[in-house]
């Protein structure tokens, strides 16, 4: 299957891995939209939360790994945002289920993230036009936590 996240999960495309177990992988986003921007994926190919194969157990595991990744990155106390984009109107560019974990948002100037800013000062996750085909050089298939603690 020609899926960039399946290839990352398989180690065919390198990524800066944060956490990994048999079923899930967390890695740094290639095009970070926040000081810390990690993606969490199931290793099994599922399109998004609307996919009938995305059952409760899989989605629960995804959220659990998202909070584990946030904790590992030192975000637990300050807080963070978990974003799930679903389909075209949801801005989903990679058709493999993933949760964005975004940290350090309040340390940004609003313009550094997006022109759309929440009332509370947080910034909406901005979209990159074409990212699905990009490949990442760097960390390789590390199973440890190569970029911890948070930069
Ligand atoms: P979406 O727009 O589908 O919710 O988010 C897809 C995310 O995947 C984007 O934030 C994009 O930067 C990231 N991405 C796309 N291709 C790669 C890649 O090859 N490596 C990594 N690390 N991130 C990627
Ligand atoms: Zn996939």
Give your account of this protein's structure.
The structure is a single chain. The longest helix is centred in the middle third of the chain and has 17 residues, at 56-72. By secondary structure, the protein is of the alpha+beta class. It has a domain at 4-108: HIT-like (HIT family, subunit A, 2-Layer Sandwich). The chain contains three helices and five strands. It has helices at residues 4-9, 56-72, 110-113; strands at 17-20, 24-28, 36-42, 80-83, 99-103. The structure holds guanosine-5'-monophosphate and zinc ion. Guanosine-5'-monophosphate is lined by residues 4, 13, 15, 27-31, 39, 85, 91-94, 128, 131-132, 134-136. The site of guanosine-5'-monophosphate has 20 residues, from strand 2.
- State the distance separating the first and last CA atoms: 34 Å
Main sheet record: 5 strands, antiparallel
Strand order of the largest sheet: 1-2-3-5-4
Give the ordered list of helices and strands: HEEEHEEH
* Low-confidence runs of at least 5 consecutive residues: 112-151
In CATH, the homologous superfamily of the domain at 4-108 goes by the name HIT-like
Strand elements, count:
5
Assign the structural class, choosing from mainly alpha, mainly beta, alpha/beta, alpha+beta, or little secondary structure. Answer: alpha+beta
- Beta-strand level of the residues, as a percent range? 15-25%
- The shape, in one word, is globular
- The share of residues in helices is 10-25%
Brief rundown of the structure:
With 151 residues, the chain is an alpha+beta fold. It is 18% helix and 17% strand.
């Amino acid at each position: 299957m020609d899926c960039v996240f399946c290839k990352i999960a398989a180690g065919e495309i390198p990524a800066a891995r944060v956490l990994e177990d048999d079923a899930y992988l967390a890695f740094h986003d290639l095009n970070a939209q926040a000081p810390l921007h990690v993606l969490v994926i199931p290793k099994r190919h599922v399109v998004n939360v609307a996919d009938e194969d995305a059952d409760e157990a899989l989605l629960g595991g995804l959220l659990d790994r998202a909070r584990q990744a946030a904790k590992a990155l030192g975000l637990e106390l300050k807080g963070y945002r978990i974003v799930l984009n679903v389909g075209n109107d949801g801005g989903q560019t990679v058709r493999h289920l993933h949760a964005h974990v975004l940290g350090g948002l309040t340390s940004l100037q609003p313009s550094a993230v997006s022109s759309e800013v929440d009332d509370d000062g947080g910034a909406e996750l901005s979209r990159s036009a074409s990212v699905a085909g990009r490949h990442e050089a760097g960390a390789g298939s590390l199973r440890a936590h190569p970029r911890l603690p948070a930069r």
